[in-house]
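Annex B, item 7. Sequence and structure tokens for protein A, then protein B.
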Amino acid sequence: PSAHAVDREYKVQAALAGTDFPVAPQYGLCTDDSVAGSWFYVMGCVDGRTIWDGAMPGATPDERRATYFAMVDTLAALHSVDVDSVGLSDFGKPGNYFGRQVDRWTKQYKLSETELMPEMEQLITWLPATLPEQTSTGVVHGDYRIDNMIWAKDRPEVLAVLDWELSTLGHPLADFSYLCMGWHIPPGTFRGIGGVDIASLGIPNETDYIHRYCDRTGLATPADLKADWNFYLAYNMFRIAAILQGIAKRVEAGTASSDQAKANGAAARPMAELAWKFAQQA
């Protein structure tokens, strides 16, 4: 029900617009249904480009490396925002972020289940029993990846981060590990670069990314972060599998019929299998 709460999307972007964090300018929220039939908000158009492929075809190795570092530096900046000072202290519930998210996505998955997936059933049991401690709280984007931002046309700079419908207050490391999930997901799924020759492309490896994020935020040491890393990856992949299953349900119901929707829905089981693999490693 809250996935497209435009008032929340407006609130977080309007708050961040008063900082150095890159978001589109916000012009206003309308809560009068008589104007357009529902609530809506107006934001500025940001002139830039979208990167749809995580491997960045046509870019040079230096451009890819700079782009990937700009992406993690921007996320680190988000996680360094003082929520009280920007008026976002009430943007989410305090504490137990992983527990609440696992519960939410379990319920969402069950509502859209079309077949029995043993891996999802195992994850539904395993995840709540292995929740890591929430050591910090900040604004989490919830869907932070390379194609959910507007990039400058001529340089590796994030001009605006988009798609805030899953944002809330939560554990920043959940957000960061979601970004790093791309190193483990095959190309074609959520801009994954798993199995791609990143060294020749100039893309930083996951270890470099972890060190960069820890240096920028101070929220954890690389060793501390690595201790729960497989849980983080399993959790995020479980969450994505639940989202993909929701698309599969809509395909079955006939409310989503595009080829892209069908492909996304079919990816739910492979994502669940990958999630369970990381759970077993944890």
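Protein B:
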Amino acid sequence: GITADLEATNPFCPGDANGNILVENVQNGSGQYVYSLNGDAYQGSPVFENLPIGSYSISILDHYGCEAIIETQLIDPNPLVVNVGDDQLISLGHEYLIPTQVNLAIDQITWTPATGLSCTDCLNPTATPTETTIYEVTVIDTKGCVNSSSLTITVDNTRKIFIPNAFSPDSDGYNDFFTINAGLDVESILSFEVFNRWG
């Protein structure tokens, strides 16, 4: 009986049709061999290319009509998974470190838009948007597979500031000092005036 080995290469990325099957080490037959995939027409080449996932039946036929049939299967590789976490709500002036997780080795990573990001080609950028922004990351792994993920960072632009409307600088230990309390969203005070009750 004819014997042979099959070398099956799965598609690079899920859904691709670039797998192939190579028939090699054909023995115990006579003359020149021809090959058929799933009952299709015979061919002289032992290579079948551009195949999607699925089950395949390889027929090997020798010069005298002796035949061997070998079964094999092509399967989807592990998919590239990208996770950037849940949408976030931050206050104006605050930052958020995006905790990106990827399950395969990365060849390239790109973030868009670049506005408010510490980097656009790193895995875990820090985002400091001044307005609500949808950030999307596109990742290419070492096999050329592509996937993307996005999150929305909603910015609460309510200015966190408290200004007392009175104080009493009479050194009695109560409300002697006037202090403006503000969050990170306030950078500077442009003008500050204090009046007594008579203006």
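Comment on protein B: The two ends are 111 Å apart (CA to CA).
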